[in-house]
Amino acid sequence: MLQVGPWDCERQALKESENAVDRPLALVRGERLVEGSIPIQRHFAYCWSGLLSRTEERDNREYSLLYNQPSVLVGSRTDVASVSSWLAPVIWEGTFNPILIDSIYKQHNLTIATTVFALGKYTRFVKDFLESAEQHYFVGFRVHYYLFTDQPESIPEVKMGENRSLTVRKVQSLNRWQDISMSRMEKLEKLIENELAYEADYIFCLDIDTKFYGRWGVESLGRLVGVIHPWFFDAPRDRFTYERRPESQAYIPAGEGDYYYAGAAFGGLLEDVHQLTKTCKEKLLIDAANSIEAVWQEESHLNKYFLLNKPSKLLSPEYMWRGINEKAAQIKVIRFSNVAKNYAEVRPNP
Ligand SMILES: CC(=O)N[C@H]1[C@@H](OP(=O)(O)OP(=O)(O)OC[C@H]2O[C@@H](n3ccc(=O)[nH]c3=O)[C@H](O)[C@@H]2O)O[C@H](CO)[C@H](O)[C@@H]1O
Ligand SMILES: [Mn+2]
């Protein structure tokens, strides 16, 4: 007589849906894995996906995470490079599994310091930046924002989630936007040196005239992290707007360079970003003493630094896009983007 157990019924039902692959990931109890067949494991994965925290609280036994087998033969993206020639990963949508990577980093109890500057009329960008960050940026992780401004009184109240905080620092007003932009390097150097050592593990330094539209999470963490500039990701390097005058410390000769990196976002471990900001500040000072200002200010120096000190991780332009309405075939998700601004109106000088 044919024995039909409860597992067989479930197995049958699941076989039918087996081709609807890409089920959400979930924690599954270890002993079920031995008992069930593959479709049954998937079934549990699916059914339990909403219950992770509750089952974890209830039961301290070991859990394993179910997900599609990673292939060593086929990359998940074939239209873009997901690794540099020095073997730094390039992070694109589809190259990582958000739930898996979150579960790995969750165990480490990390704090991500995040710096922004809003001087003069740029205070108008603060509200959208912070509100959108609360929705998309390292959700579920500890984030400490540091906001530097010449007008602390005009910084709006933004409701922060659990384990998230904002520190506002007053800084001196400056007359030229170029000086505001460049002065960030020194402020960051000092912040890391004087305050962050016991406060944070990683730091990201971001432009404020921006907004988050999609996940920016732990997949972005690395020792030294650069973001590929959205206007140059598909350009040959002779078109990159590197500083081309040998008199500047930011000089990069024709025929050299890897990528063109955005000045609007970089990060990494405190120590590595400290070294970066300190070096860029020193080079900016040497340039100033020689009466030369690099064509894209600190962004030019950042590009020189990254040429000599290769980032250990690269973020695709999904992490610093041109604008929410701008499209490119390779950009499947806009995570963080410039917001439109009238340069003449918002900047203190041309
Ligand atoms: C997408 C990108 O990579 N943007 C870079 C680019 O132009 P951007 O046009 O993005 O520069 P920007 O005007 O946003 O200035 C950079 C940042 O300086 C701050 N700020 C500037 C002016 C001001 O009046 N008040 C104020 O607070 C603010 O945080 C702003 O986000 O080149 C700049 C340097 O030339 C920086 O490297 C920017 O990061
Ligand atoms: Mn900007």
Automatic annotation (TrEMBL):
The cellular location(s) given in this protein's UniProt record come to: Membrane
Q: Which Gene3D superfamilies match?
A: Spore Coat Polysaccharide Biosynthesis Protein SpsA, Chain A
Question: Which residues does UDP-N-acetyl-alpha-D-galactosamine bind?
Answer: 122, 207-209
Name one molecular function that GO assigns to this entry.
hexosyltransferase activity
Main location (coarse class): membrane
> A biological process (GO) annotation for this entry?
carbohydrate metabolic process
**Record-listed Mn(2+) binding positions:** 207, 209
Cofactor: how and how many bound: Binds 1 Mn(2+) ion per subunit.
Q: Which residues bind an alpha-L-fucosyl-(1->2)-beta-D-galactosyl derivative?
A: 229, 241, 299
The family database entries (CDD domains) matched by this protein are listed as:
Glyco_transf_6 (cd02515)
Q: Which cofactor does it need?
A: Mn(2+)
UniProt KW keywords: Glycosyltransferase, Manganese, Membrane, Metal-binding, Signal-anchor, Transferase, Transmembrane, Transmembrane helix
Q: Which residues form the active site?
A: 299
Query: What does the sequence similarity comment in the record state about its family?
Result: Belongs to the glycosyltransferase 6 family.
**PANTHER family in the record:** GLOBOSIDE ALPHA-1,3-N-ACETYLGALACTOSAMINYLTRANSFERASE 1, GLYCOSYLTRANSFERASE-RELATED
Q: Name the chain's protein.
A: Globoside alpha-1,3-N-acetylgalactosaminyltransferase 1-like
Q: What is the lineage of its organism?
A: Eukaryota, Metazoa, Chordata, Craniata, Vertebrata
